[in-house]
What does this fold into?
Amino acid sequence: MSFSSSAHEASATPGSGPAPGIGRRRFLRHGTAGAGALLAMSPLAGCSSPASASGASALSVWDLFQGGDGMLMNDMIKAVSQGPEGFRIDRTILDWGPSYYTKLAMSAAGGRASDVAVLHLSRLAGYAPGGLLDPFDLDLLAEFGVTEKDFTPAVWSRTKHQGRVYAIPLDVHPFIVFYDRKAAGQAGLLDAEGELAPMGSPKALLEAGKALADVTGKSGILFGHVTDTAQSWRQFAALYAQTGAAFTLPDGGPAEIDTDAAVQVVSFMQQLFDGRTNPNNLDYNSALAGFLGGRGGMAMLGEWELPTLQKSGIPLGAAPFPQVFGRPAVYTDSHSFVLPHQSDPDPARRREAHRYVARILKQSLTWASAGHIPAYQPVLAEPEYAALKPQSSYADAGDVAVLDPPNWFAGAASNFQNRMCQPLQSALLGNTSAEKAVRQMVREANTLLRQPNPVA
Amino acid sequence: MPTGERPLSPPPRRGSRRRGPGLLFVLPFAVPFVLFLVWPVVQGVWMSFTDSSLALRDTSFVGFDNYAEAFGDPDVWSSLGNTVLFTALSSIPLVLVALVMALLVHSGLAGQWVWRLSFFVPYLLPVTVVTLIWTWLYQPDIGLGNELLTTLGFEPVGWLSDEAVAMWSVAALTVWWTVGFNFLLYLAALQSLPTTYDEAAALDGAGAWRRLWSVTLPQLRRTTVLVSMLQILASLKVFDQIYILTKGGPNGSTRPILEYVYDVGFTGYRLGYASAVSYVFFALVIVVSLAQLRLFRQED
It folds into this structure.
């Protein structure tokens, strides 16, 4: 996810499901011309089912789920397409990354966006205030069985802008640690139940790295950040939040960042990735390849790498990002459903969009198999979820979720993350000191804060 | 040839008649040219004076604000510097290596077609393929580059992670990738040179180096000017391989100006400001082109 997988699925329309019911077809016959134009953009539109010839148009959905995630989403869409109440979905998959958000913003600015789209919750501040999104109708969602109670407060609080809800979270996807159970056991890092024991201090994590390096004979903890535009920010943000300091970016600046805490965190990251015990020069793919090849006992990655790692046959364990400073905090983001702005939305289609979001949320167990923590809490309570290993061992991460600061320029695949990563990368590579790196981060944040807001 | 026998029309009518079909012939080029080049250039100038945003419909005129911001923006200058650095690092070897390769092939090396093919083939690869290959060559741990260095007893190099090295790595990739085109231009020029001067010099007892220096190279001068001109303009346009390879990192050390324009415009939604930055760059390109044009004239 962080690096775009090479699987290019331009579009996938579940065509194997039975034809939709008559009632819904009548419903959708009033589809707007705008949505029809979007439909035409999908190369597979119109050839999926004979129903399209009758003029009824499918609900258009945009997302950025490629590779394994993309296939799971396909399964979920297939599941909600079954039966008399089934949907006809025209799905467009776009490349993960900045270009997705360029396209989504342009389509919403033009007022002819898809009916439903996926947005990282961390990007909401760049979308809701500028009118790029339309708010959800909570009564309508409640009618379909989804209410505020179904989400954790930490995540729900980020779905709102000026009191209205603009995003319905599908998942919480934290930046966590994966470990080799065998190596961790030999290094004495497991608790009585065979799970990774809490760290509790910077020293404990440093020593865990050394112990793992002794066991593997190569490296202890693997972390890929070189030329990556998110990884080192994810790690920094998690550790910084653990210190309890605030990272606030008020409009117009200056940034309110506790530089002492930030320097403490960057120094710790430098100590951890010293280039001997734990390599400091890996890029994303080589860290992943290293962990798969047994060249390290632990890897700091997003949970979305779970399917890849599970296939490798490593005795795989997973845990929330270890707490080493004062309070627990895990860096996360959340894939959410949004209603991109349409100038002339058709009420019937909007109703269908709400129903679709509610139905997909209830398919979250499928989504969880990719490693993501379902945001829809009733799924977490199901025994099937508890049986999912190692997913259930980091399910708590959602409670201590830390997202990017809510600014228009921040969030997944943003310039902000890229700019924060650059000094951090230099510091980890030993090209600059922790103090200098933090000064540059503050400077970059101030530069972004001074810029006029292009979305409001 | 019955049409040739037709009586000539009076002069003024003939003129207008000629213009009619002429315009028709130009039209297939002129329409897309105006639509997709002239109009965007004009539109871009207008945008650079507004706060135009990718995500908002209403824009307002902001005068020279964007330009003032651009001239005071250190990122504009550093990325402009990176573009110029890349142009220097890539253009010089791209001209010299191409010349050497063309001379070697032209000198009558055995298996000519093998050389021609292998020098030119990388040029045919798409940028994504080239960067994927080189990403693996540049891998710090398992890449061929560091493998070779450590086998030979040298310290491994952070090809893409060391701020002082990354741009050189990008330039090396670019030379490997695109040198074939310049090579082809040089080879074509060499093969069309008259052999008489060379033979005369040989008869007068000039050695191979002497003939190369005083006979062949002076005759290649116009090709060199052409190749350099095309190369500098191509290098100034650098974006794709850097964007895929390093995203402008480490620490902005490889970010070219065009990536900065892309970053502020398409990732940051500030189209107005991005337009202003690109016109600052446009001015630089014009200056370089004019300078080269003068050089070209002097050659004439």
Q: What stands out?
A: Chain A is about 40% helix and 15% strand. Residues 104 and 113 of chain A are 8 Å apart (CA to CA).
